[in-house]
Every structure is written in structure tokens, then in C-alpha cells.
Amino acid sequence: MTDRKKLVGLILFVMAIGLFLLQMIYFYLHAKFFVEYSDNRLFYVFNIAIALLFGLSMIVLFNMKRTAKIISIFMLLLFILINSTLIFKHPIPQIVSVSPDFKNIFVVKEIRGEARYYRTYYGIFARQKETLPYHLKGEYKIDWVTNDVAALTYKAMDDSLHQFIGTYGDRGSGISYYYVGSALYGEWKGSNSSISTHTEGITVNHGGSKETFNWDQIVQFGTLAVVLVDDHEAKWTIALNDDFIMDSGSGIGVAGTISLFQASMEHKEILILKR
Whose CA is closest to 106, among 222, 189, 22? Predict the structure, then answer.
């Protein structure tokens, strides 16, 4: 065996052991802290990678007889086939969406009839944060309003329309909580739309139609977005954009832009408004 061939075999073996240890870490985190993979299919992808790397390393490092090679390759292909099938037929429905800048991952998994929102850590790991208030009927769509605000629009079992917002940033100091509704105080205008935030709530003016939502109809998500609801159905999402500037003393936005997004299962343009 040449030194180069031996080196390749050892590298493949070390990579297989590294991925195997990652799987063991996952089992420990899952059992102790209820941590899961962001995408459940990663478990089977890593299984396939471990099998391939380990199998190739054995073939490279050892002079196996022809019969042993055939048996080993057959078992390897069978293992890969089983895991590949599970990738495409995983029993847990899930929604996984990556932000346009590839920095954030929106994850919702449906377990025992409940739709659960997960917060991601280090990209590949996730932990349940909260349960969505309505069960998903199956019809949904994801829109990234900003690089750190994802809007899940979905139909519930009674055909009512809802939105759940995943937020992954902050427009304040990052050390204190603030109310998005208060930060929106005043008037924000776009080319064909505007919103006005006042003591009674938020008024949306779009295409000549005006609608006011009182504070009980305004649901906040994180510190970046609110959803305006009417008769328990989502109507509009308002998100603070990356350039939104808030006065730390008053907690009111003084410059920058916001996004106004209409709740709909159809494609809707994200409207940009300025103070």
C-alpha cells in the first residue's frame, strides 16, 4: 500500500468517526435537553455519509477478498437505500426555510397534531420554542419579509387564515424588550399605502381602503413584527426593516423603513413604508 493511499484511507476513516461522534452528541442533547436537528432529514444524511466514508476507508486500507468486497458493498448499498427512503418518507411533517442571506433558518414541525416552532442553534440544531395556536390544514407558504423576519401564512382546520412570524434580530440595544406597536407611533407612507399608529391602535390605508385595528387586535412576535388580526384571522404583518432606527429614550422609530405585508395564500408584494 502506497503512503498516499494509506493517507486517503485514514482521512476517510477519521471523517467517518467525526460524523459518528456528531450523531452521538445529537443523541445526548436530544435525551437531556430535547434538542433536535433543524431538519430531521439530516440524521439520515449523516448516516449515509458515515456508511460511505467508513466503507470506502475499509476498502482503501485493507486488501479484502472479492467475496468480502461484494458482501460489504451489498450491505452498504442496502443501508444507504433504507436511509434514502427515510429521507423522502420521514414520518414527521416539517417546514424548513432558509433566509435569503443564509443566516437564519425558520423551522416548524408537526408532532402529534401540533405545529411547533423551533429556534435554531449553530445551524443544524434546534429546540422547540412554542406551539402554534392553530393546527395546520396542510396549505401554507413562507415569505421572508426581511432577512430576519419570516412570515408563515397558513390555513387552519376550519379554513381560517393565520400568520406566525419567526424573528431573529433586534432593532434596539439588544438588551431590553420593547413594543413594536409603540415603536411604530406616527405615520408611515409608501407609494400606494400608509399606516398610522395612534392611541386607539393602527390604521392601515391601502389602495383607497382604510381599516383600523385596536390594540387587542395586534399580536407581537419578538421585537421585530406585529400581525394585525380581525375576527381571529390575520390581515396584515408589519415588520421593522434593517435600516429602522429607534430612539432609545422614547422607544419610538425616528428614521428608516418598515415593511407592510398582506396576509394571503396568494403572492403579495412586500410594501416599503417610510416615516
Answer: 222
